[in-house]
């Protein structure tokens, strides 16, 4: 036992079983083995430090083809490596965990070749190493040395204790320094025919049910289709990130595989909000990015939001991806693209905090709804000078507390109660991937996004008189007048984040917003929708006013209005809206006295209010919204829409 030092280690035994890990003692790296024990009747642990070669012997003996790379890693530390070290950066893409030890085997090859059982060279290599290491660790845990250590008991162990770091402390240090776990990429090419549902290719993005419509194989084909578009445009680099959904890692892995198959170089930024993916595309000068996210949809959904060459894909560009897959028009590169990992969260926070600082502190409750924004939102808001009370900021892809959709008022009730409980100045809520924002006041009033856009417009137009401000067809009728009164140029446009961004690029608008909570700042930012940045800009405005946040928000023009009303339908909602719109435009019909807008559904504006019917582009529902000067006018407009819809849908529940 002369080569070991025994320490008391009370806090990190593993469910009553011995554990092994690599630790750093006296400036050297060793293999540590710990086991549970008792000390004076209290739970404790015993620890033995062993030579590292007991663990690395398996790596030294494993077969290693020429030109390949093999490593044993724990957190950010490379314990042992062999082969072509130039491949070390990309080896984590194919790493595999070694049981629950915290260790992982990482490997890389420059070109993928088929191996036994249809596996590629790297998977074969990783499997071989895993078998060797698992056998070594099992033998080690059952070795006479470990048994003698346990038989000696805690008193003898305590007698040999020193002031060196404990095994638990060493693990904590390694964990603090470790990067986010890499997204695995499968090296083998798809060799079976994969059925791809055309219905997942939507107007704004790609979205479907995991396991039924979206699988890693489908994701790989989508990645290869995106990579094919990039190849035609001469684009090589692309950022990939994912939200906190349980299916995210495997779908991101499939997507990355497909992108690399098309020869694209992938920068994996890990689990981050969608706007951080967009930011990374600018920050890392990639120009393209894909966020693997189901946004605000139920947990069983996931999808892809895609930017190629600075343009968010939508409409025909999304349909073209399906056509490429259907027709087999997929680029296959001679060599796979490179893969790198980057952590951009701190750069994102620093970029915003360098520009946005509060003139006075505000206390704010931040509700992430267990979505991915919970990883960054509290840190960001604290960095700009706010006091933050986090609510549901632990990322959980099952969304156990409430659905992460701030456009639904019932999802904001916990936020309202928490704001009141802590006496906060304001409450902010984010959707599942962090690109939308919801706001409540200290008194519990929900501030709809179209009214928030009024406040943003006031602020932006102070520095950019005459600037264009875009809003979607669901926004308040008072918004246009408010923009005009503050020296701006209002423009109503179609609903949809990708459609709004496209219109912003076309018109060079400084600001845009949607009723759903998407806000797009070109002034001082990059023009993409970002709920986190929008929250920072809101707090900046409110902290610069003498009035309280509730007073500032309460002074914005208001009317009697409804939230979005969603009516599920079995038939094609677009066809229903088309029939409704055609009937409404009849010269002698009930809509004859209204100003009709048909860019997205049918919006009818009267002197005292307006109504809207449109088809959702993401789910099979009809979307309605109404606003008026008083309740009587509101009910009149609602009744008109209800009666006209009932003629088209006699069996539907239209009690809105």
Automatic annotation (TrEMBL):
Catalytic activity: alpha-D-mannose 1-phosphate = D-mannose 6-phosphate
Enzyme superclass (EC): isomerase
Cofactor(s) listed in the protein's UniProt record: Mg(2+)
Occurrences of domain Alpha-D-phosphohexomutase alpha/beta/alpha (ranges): 200-327, 347-444, 449-557
GO molecular function: magnesium ion binding; phosphomannomutase activity
CDD domains referenced in this protein's UniProt entry, alphabetically: PMM_PGM
Keywords: Isomerase, Magnesium, Membrane, Metal-binding, Phosphoprotein, Transmembrane, Transmembrane helix
Domain Alpha-D-phosphohexomutase C-terminal: start-end pairs: 564-639
Pathway: Nucleotide-sugar biosynthesis; GDP-alpha-D-mannose biosynthesis; alpha-D-mannose 1-phosphate from D-fructose 6-phosphate: step 2/2
The protein, known as: phosphomannomutase
Residues that span the membrane, as ranges: 120-142
GO biological process, one term: carbohydrate metabolic process
């Amino acid at each position: 036992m002369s080569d070991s030092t025994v320490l008391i280690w009370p806090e990190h035994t593993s469910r009553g079983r011995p554990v092994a890990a690599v630790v750093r003692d006296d400036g050297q790296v060793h293999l540590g083995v710990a086991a549970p024990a008792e000390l004076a009747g209290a739970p404790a642990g015993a620890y033995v430090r062993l030579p590292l070669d007991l663990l690395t012997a398996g790596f030294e003996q494993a077969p290693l083809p020429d030109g390949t790379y093999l490593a044993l890693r724990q957190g950010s530390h490379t314990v042992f490596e062999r082969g072509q070290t130039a491949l070390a950066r990309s080896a984590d893409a194919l790493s595999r965990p070694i049981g629950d030890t915290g260790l992982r085997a990482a490997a890389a090859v420059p070109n993928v070749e088929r191996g036994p059982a249809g596996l590629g060279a790297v998977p074969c290599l990783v499997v071989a190493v895993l078998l060797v290491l698992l056998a070594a660790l099992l033998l080690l845990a059952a070795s006479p040395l470990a048994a003698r250590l346990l038989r000696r008991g805690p008193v003898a162990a305590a007698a040999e204790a020193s002031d060196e770091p404990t095994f638990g402390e060493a693990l904590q240090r390694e964990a603090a320094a470790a990067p986010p776990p890499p997204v695995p990429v499968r090296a083998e090419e798809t060799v079976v025919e994969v059925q791809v549902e055309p219905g997942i290719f939507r107007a704004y993005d790609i979205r479907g049910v995991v396991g039924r419509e979206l699988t890693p194989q489908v994701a790989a084909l989508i990645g290869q289709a995106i990579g094919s578009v990039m190849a035609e445009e001469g684009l090589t680099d692309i950022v990939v990130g994912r939200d906190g959904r349980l299916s995210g890692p495997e779908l991101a892995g499939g997507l990355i595989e497909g992108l690399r198959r098309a020869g694209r170089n992938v920068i994996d930024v890990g689990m981050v909000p969608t706007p951080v993916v967009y930011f990374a595309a600018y920050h890392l000068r990639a120009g393209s990015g894909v966020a693997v996210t189901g946004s605000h949809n139920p947990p069983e959904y996931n999808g892809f939001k895609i930017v190629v060459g600075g343009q968010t894909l939508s409409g025909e560009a999304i349909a073209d991806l399906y056509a490429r897959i259907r027709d087999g028009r997929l680029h296959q590169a001679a060599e796979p693209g490179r893969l790198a990992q980057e952590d951009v969260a701190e750069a994102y926070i620093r970029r915003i905090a360098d520009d946005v600082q509060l003139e006075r502190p505000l206390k704010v409750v931040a509700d992430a709804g267990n979505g991915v924004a919970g990883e960054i939102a509290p840190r960001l808001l604290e960095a700009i000078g706010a006091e933050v009370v986090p609510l549901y900021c632990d990322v959980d892809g099952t969304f156990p507390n409430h659905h992460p959709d701030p456009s639904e008022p019932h999802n904001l009730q916990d936020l309202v109660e928490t704001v009141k409980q802590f006496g906060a100045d304001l409450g902010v809520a984010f959707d599942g991937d962090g690109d939308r924002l919801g706001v409540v006041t200290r008194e519990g009033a929900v501030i709809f996004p179209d009214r928030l856009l009024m406040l943003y417009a006031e602020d932006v137009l102070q520095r950019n008189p005459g600037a264009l401000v875009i809003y979607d067809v669901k926004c308040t009728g008072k918004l246009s007048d408010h923009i005009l009164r503050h020296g701006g140029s209002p423009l109503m446009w179609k609903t949809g984040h990708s459609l709004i961004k496209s219109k912003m690029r076309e018109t060079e608008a400084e600001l845009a917003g949607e009723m759903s909570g998407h806000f797009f700042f070109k002034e001082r930012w990059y023009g993409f929708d970002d709920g986190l940045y929008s929250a920072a800009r809101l707090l900046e405005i409110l902290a610069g006013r003498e009035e309280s946040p509730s007073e500032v928000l309460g002074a914005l023009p208001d009317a009697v209005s409804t939230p979005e009303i969603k009516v599920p339908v079995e038939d094609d909602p677009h066809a229903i809206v088309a029939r409704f719109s055609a009937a409404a435009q009849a010269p002698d019909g009930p809509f004859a006295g209204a100003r009709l807008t048909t860019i997205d559904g049918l919006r009818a504006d009267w002197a005292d209010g307006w109504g809207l019917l449109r088809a959702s582009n993401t789910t099979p529902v009809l979307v309605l919204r109404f606003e008026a000067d008083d309740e009587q006018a509101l009910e009149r407009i609602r009744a008109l829409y209800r009666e006209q819809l009932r003629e088209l849908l006699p069996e539907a529940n239209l009690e809105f």
